[in-house]
Design goal:
Helices cover about 50% and strands about 25% of the residues. By secondary structure, the protein is α+β, with helices and mostly antiparallel strands. The N terminus and C terminus are likely disordered.
Length: about 575
């Protein structure tokens, strides 16, 4: 063990050996670099060809760049243009009235789900509603009759009370007035009797005078009539003999007619006078009899005082009874309130029954699956006769899509989404129609990301115009969105531009230098073929497309070549925004 330890080198010796090895390595690298540089210069000196020979170049110029954002997408239905129609109830799919590809209209019956127990529940609810309505009708009729009877009873009692009070007041007044009335009535009756007797005596006294006067008038009229007849005869005789004119005869005739009429009138007047006198005598006698009867009645009123007082007592009892009847009728109003409460309870029962009928009708209607939109049946996940369960999730029966309301959903990479704006025009190519280009504006840009094969993208919606029925959902689409147009800007071929660690650069052929020069630049927009040059180049400059640096050189990305090897180039200026 001790011998082995003595043969091993010390730690100091080991460190010295490692340092020597590192120095040898660096010396070797330095010799190789110096030799390589010498060899490179020797090759360049011995070569008679120009270093620009065989290079592909291009000229920097001004042109128009249309910057586009490319994305892949698909044809999708617009919001509300595709509906997955399900069933809210469980049961057996008894009928399906449409198939994939069928055209359906909004509200059209497209399927029926049989529910064995629901129609029975609906019938029971309708029967309960009918019974509740009949009970309500009975209660309503009863309360109406009760109200009418109560109102009539109250009104009758009030009227009876008013009548009884009026009769009582009248009887009380009559009882108070009775003594005075009796005395006054006797005086009035006595005066009336005396007046009637006096009138009767006056009628008897004037009777003979009136009759005598009427007879005297008859006698005077008879005399005048005889005299006129005699005068008429004389005039007629004289007319015949020619002593008088015809007018004299006419006057005599007229005069005779007057006197004859006066005689008839006098006779008639006598009859009238006699009848009038007889009637006056009769009337006078009747007045006397009536006055005597009135006097007897007035004297009899003395015995009515007690009757009047009794009438007052009777009327007071009638008032008391009427008031009691009114109180009883008013108490009947309490029954109205009870009836009203019963009616409200019956109405509540009817309402509850109606809600049950509505509920079960809705349940029945849920078995009729109708199309919420017009469109084409694109999917039919279930078949007629299948049993579906809607207890935990709504099963999809039919998918209806309006093929006239489709859009393009493009998934734009997160690095390009900042360039996309609403209203930008996009060109769309559908894989199913490679020779057709559809054009439309950007109408929606989602704010939420969508992961596509591990890449963050954003859904951009494009509204395109297309012939009805041409496109179908889920068709693959290629989208190019015009993000910007830059006219008359300085451009260089994108192939000539390199990207280093410090930014973009080109290999610039700048006479009288014999080799291309690494030129840092700032770039702007690009269309994939040409790129906008913001700084570092001028119109007419020549840049290298390919062939430089030569094979084996060290002019890599972001590096400058020297005879002793590559070294980092100067950092480029900060990149400015593209100019239109």
């Amino acid at each position: 063990m001790e011998t082995t330890v003595k043969n091993q080198p010390s730690p100091h010796a080991r460190r010295a050996r490692k340092q020597l090895q590192r120095r040898l390595i660096w010396i070797t690298i330095l010799i190789v670099l110096i030799g390589g540089g010498f060899y490179w210069f020797k090759l360049r000196a011995n070569s008679g060809d120009s270093p620009l020979k065989g290079l592909q170049t291009a000229t920097v110029s001004r042109s128009t760049i249309v910057e586009t954002v490319s994305a892949q997408g698909q044809v999708d239905a617009q919001t509300g243009a595709q509906v997955s129609i399900g069933s809210q109830v469980s049961g057996i799919v008894s009928h399906i009235y449409a198939d994939v590809g069928s055209l359906v209209k909004k509200g059209q019956l497209i399927a029926t789900v049989a529910q064995p127990d629901v129609p029975t529940q609906l019938k029971q609810a309708e029967a309960s509603l009918l019974a509740s309505e009949m009970a309500l009708q009975q209660q309503t009729t009863g309360v109406s009759m009760q109200q009418i009877q109560t109102a009539s009873a109250v009104q009758s009692a009030q009227q009876a009370l008013r009548s009884a009070e009026a009769n009582y007041n009248s009887a009380l007044a009559a009882a108070k007035q009775q003594p005075q009335t009796t005395s006054s009535d006797i005086k009035q009756a006595t005066t009336a009797l005396n007046t009637a007797i006096a009138d009767e005596e006056q009628v008897y006294a004037s009777r003979d005078l009136q009759i005598a006067t009427a007879r005297a008038s008859i006698q005077q009229a008879e005399a005048n009539a005889l005299n006129s007849q005699a005068n008429l005869k004389r005039e007629e005789q004289l007319f015949k003999e020619g002593y008088v004119a015809a007018s004299g005869v006419d006057a005599a005739v007229a005069q005779n007619g007057v006197y004859q009429a006066q005689l008839a009138s006098a006779k008639q007047n006598l009859g009238l006078v006699e009848a009038q006198v007889s009637a006056s005598m009769k009337t006078a006698k009747e007045k006397v009899s009536q006055a005597r009867a009135a006097l007897a009645a007035a004297k009899a009123e003395i015995y009515m005082n007690d009757q009047k007082q009794q009438a007052v007592s009777n009327m007071a009892a009638a008032v008391k009874q009427a008031r009691a009847q009114l109180q009883s009728a008013i108490a009947g109003l309490t029954q109205n309130a009870i009836k009203q409460q019963q009616v409200k309870q019956a109405q509540a029962a009817v309402k509850q029954a109606e809600e049950q009928v509505k509920y079960w009708k809705v349940q029945v209607s849920k078995g009729d699956i109708r199309a919420p939109i017009s469109g084409t049946v694109t999917q039919l996940p279930v078949q007629q006769g299948e049993t579906i369960a809607a207890n935990f999730a709504t099963p999809t029966l039919i998918v209806v899509t309006d093929l006239n309301r489709l859009q393009i959903d493009a998934y734009v990479d997160e690095t390009d989404i900042g360039k996309v704006k609403l209203g930008q025009q996009a060109k769309v190519t559908i894989d199913a129609f490679p020779n057709r280009t559809f054009v439309g504006p950007v109408v929606k840009i989602d704010s939420g990301p969508t992961m596509q094969q591990g890449v963050v993208t954003y859904d951009v919606t494009i509204m395109i115009h297309y012939p009805p029925g041409l496109l179908k959902p889920s068709m693959t689409a290629s989208v190019n969105i015009e993000a910007g147009r830059y006219t008359h800007v300085l451009t260089a071929p994108s192939e000539a531009i390199n990207q280093g660690t410090h930014g973009a650069y080109v290999w610039l052929i700048k006479p009288p230098q014999k080799t291309p020069v690494r030129q840092p630049i700032q770039i702007g927009a690009t269309d994939g073929i040409n790129t906008q040059i913001l700084s570092g180049l001028h119109d007419g400059d020549t840049v290298v497309l390919a062939g430089w640096p030569p094979p084996g050189g060290f002019g890599g990305r972001g590096m400058q070549m020297t005879p002793f090897g590559p070294r980092p180039g100067p950092p480029p200026k900060k990149r400015a925004a593209p100019h239109k």
